[in-house]
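It is worth pausing here to work through a concrete case rather than discussing structure prediction in the abstract. The textbook approach is simple: state the sequence, then state the predicted structure, then interpret. We follow exactly that order.
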Amino acid sequence: MNFLAILLALGVERAFPQGTALGESHLLAALLRGLKKLDNAALPWLLTLVAIALTAALDHLLPGALAEILFGGAVLFACLGPRDLADDVHRLIAAKARGDAAEAERLSRVLQSGPAPDESHRSLIGALFIQSHERLFGVLLWFMVLGPAAAVGYRLASRLPLLLEQLGYGTHTRHAADQLHGLAAWLPSRITAALFALAGSMDDALSAWKRIGELHYREAWRSHSWAVLAEVGAGALAMEEEDGGISVAPNLAAALHEVLRMQTRALLVLLAGFAVYTSGSLL
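Step two, the predicted structure:
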């Protein structure tokens, strides 16, 4: 049933008109403004657990398989945004093409907002792979494993750090939100990186993964997750020519389009794997 709900949500998300701002966390931001007096480290964990519990309770009360599929699809659709990465990328390319430097800079900041590796691994291309995980794969992977409640949990965990910072919450609260997000993303981020490797140049992706693994991230394990996504994704973009050389995108627009194509291939790999798992569990 989760697989059918995923297909439903992805189909609606692809057909849904962009630019409607449904990907913005307006309700969560309003809730956090009202809870500003409860500014402490327990708040991110409490909010996430309450949201998970409420979603699980609603899911449990549904009267049949069809209702569960529709509910799961609706929850997943809401957790995905819809805020398609391709929409922001195409607007960035268009802004650069018409010479609108201000709009291009704004869109670049949007795409590079949220979680990021340390400065040595920060780039726009790497940020797109991180955003691909945050907007799509992280939510999908949690949904596949544990259903709608887990997707809601990751949606909140991934957005709380930035919102708490924007709303001026204290250091302890923001640190707790970062920890929660890092824990929720640790395993899914590595599965997503593996999907990028399968969807692109696996040898180059694994070489990049090995280089990242040799760095010392004991004190910054959350940054390590984002570095893995950025570096493995960028490594997977490398394409080998017939003469053994490496093909490099001729310009930024071509590189951005290739990132989107890789996201699509990685998504197809994930859906195919989940379809095989689902069909096997039904036998």
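Step three, interpretation. The chain is about 75% helix and 0% strand. The first strand starts at residue 239 and ends at 240.
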